[in-house]
Amino acid sequence: MTEYSHPVNTCLDIGHIYMDVLAVRCSHLEAIKLEGRVWRDRSDGDTEVIAERSVEFGPFDDAGTIGAAVLRMIADLTPILQTAKAL
After folding, report:
1. pLDDT tens digit sequence for 31-63
2. Rounded to an integer, what is the distance from CA 64 to the centroid of its chain?
3. What is the model's pTM?
4. Quick one: how many helices (H) and strands (E) in the chain?
5. 28 partner at 20 to 30 Å CA-CA among 34, 58, 65, 81?
6. Are 77 and 21 in contact (CB under 8 A)?
7. pLDDT value for 36
């Protein structure tokens, strides 16, 4: 797993911004779920989700299709991460 983070300093919140993309194979559902999010932690210990994406694949989808979806999700979330870092 690759995790990107960047420190954030706003009026009262000091924390980090994160982006993670995770693929999970659910054998009991015969599905592969792909989830991505951009989120931040705050000085009070709470977290805030800035953006979320989710895609589900069936058992007959090939690895190339899933890999391409991972790359699209990263490309989709990266500008959101960059914008959040600039705030």
Report:
1. 888 999 998 887 777 888 889 999 999 888 888
2. 20
3. 0.71
4. 1, 4
5. 65
6. yes
7. 92
**Domain layout of the chain by residue ranges:** 4-86
How far, in Å, are 22, 38, 45, 56 from residue 79 at the CA level?
Answer: 18, 10, 25, 23
Predicted confidence band of residue 8 (pLDDT cuts 50, 70, 90) = low
**Residue whose token pair is 């890999």:** 67
Is the CB of residue 15 less than 8 Å from the CB of residue 87? no
Listed residue (2, 19, 6) closest to 85, CA to CA: 6
DSSP secondary structure, 23-37, as one string: EEEETTTTEEEEEEE
H-type alpha helices, 2-53:
none
Token look-up 């870092």 returns: 85
